[in-house]
Amino acid sequence: MIGVLFRHHVRLHRVPLLPLALGLALFEWIMTFVAREPAVSSFLTSALRAAPPQFLALLNQELVATVSPQGIIGVGYTHPFTLIMMAVWAVRVPCAALAGEIGRGTMDLVAARPVSRSAQVAAALLALLAGLTVLAAAAWLGTFMGLAGGGLEGVTAWHYLPVAAAMWMLFACCGAVAILVSALAREAGTAIAWISGLLAGSYVLDYAARVWPKLTPLRPLSLFRYYEPQRLLATGLAREDVIVFAAVAAVALLLAFAVFSRRDL
Amino acid sequence: MADAPPIRTRGLAKRYGRLLALEDLSLDVEAGEVFGFLGPNGAGKTTTIRLLLGLIRPSGGEATVLGRPVRSVAAHADIGFLPGDMAFWPRLSGVETLDFLAALAGRPATLRASLLERLGLSATELARPVRTYSDGMKQKLGLVQALQCGPRLALLDEPTKGLDPLVQQAFYEIVADLKARGATIFLSSHVLSEAERLCDRVAMLRAGQLVSLGDVETLRRAEQRRVTADFGADVDPAPLAHFGALIVALPRHVELLVAQEQVPALVARLGMLPLADLVIERPTLEEAFLEHYR
Fold it and tell me: Most buried in the list A115, A131, B182, B278, measured by CB within 10 Å?
């Protein structure tokens, strides 16, 4: 039954998946060309050196990486465009799969059949992860194709595979939280509002904690704290980040299974 | 488990905050019967069906369907369900919807072709997205999805809502066929003529409470008869009030509501008067229904 439900979710959401994937691939592909332009690197270096201390603090040890061609391509993976494209899927699918079906009234048709509540949550999770895999792969493919022609010494697309993987983990974690929110809500709109607020709040907290030292102790509370492509490019995937993403996702999913199994539809 | 009735509830109750939607419902629906669940809007009919499907959890009591607890996933394999408020996935076509729901049921849609033909849904219509369907077409699609796998138990919430008379007639024939196949049908309705026509037994619900349960004939018998008498000469109608409630009391025309057991005595008394015409009407289920809700 999970397979039937999974295919159902894919069918309902495949249309937006295509432009999201194309958009991400195109954006990362363009970033490889931006990184090839010496003028861009030079401009960024000058701009960052002239930036106020708070802004430099935001980048901290990543300054050197960011102004290199490798770092500029990495910026493509933290750019709001990329984050929003990934977030669209991480919010849309979980919210539609549970709260959306309840709000529309179609949940009754599904739940009246021999389908367990946990199978419904599992199918939503599978659809979320499958779509995120396509999107992260599309982003990396854009980088790969952009770098395929060469021109940037020492920079290969393989450097960005861990970055794409980390981005996938970040949004898989966000999607798991979205599944929990969706398991609690009665309508997709409510769930979307809550999870969008949570993601935006988490992003703003991470940003604010970088530029305002008083908020620094709160930074670990943001999921975006554990996704730093520039650091990834320098030191590789950190075990601590992976553990945090896995732990948050596991807790959110366990709660979602428990809540959705017991609630009135 | 094999001997358990398809539906059994004991003290079933559902409360939403302060609102008691269903209170202490105990009933058995036997295999192969068509059972009508009647009541005005808000009486608790849909709540009962949702409880029987495990879509909501009871505040008290318990229920089994096909011998299993309502939350049992296995029990749902043999249940066909038509929701009261029919909703589909607007972008899916009719046939995609039916395929998906049959796949979820895990059983072949053996009755689909026959249902589509009888309800008048063509292949062309099925190929269109459901968002283009009229309410009547959605209801037809709802009936097909509920019954296409040949369920042992069909829970139908307001099944003829939005159907034209011809399609209603087709639906009645479908119910008769399902019953002949041994299926149990539990349908909620406030269309009393429909329940009267289809059901072996009916339960009436008012404000979440079961107020009456029995076969249609027994319910009718339990209600008062309307007696209309015309006289060839003037009579004093006042003594007739002894037999029941006088509705019209004219010297040559009298109408009364009389309990069934009073009818022979009343007829004997009327025979002593200059009776010109006498009509004793059996109450319709509608009158029995209204009697309960007045």
Answer: A131
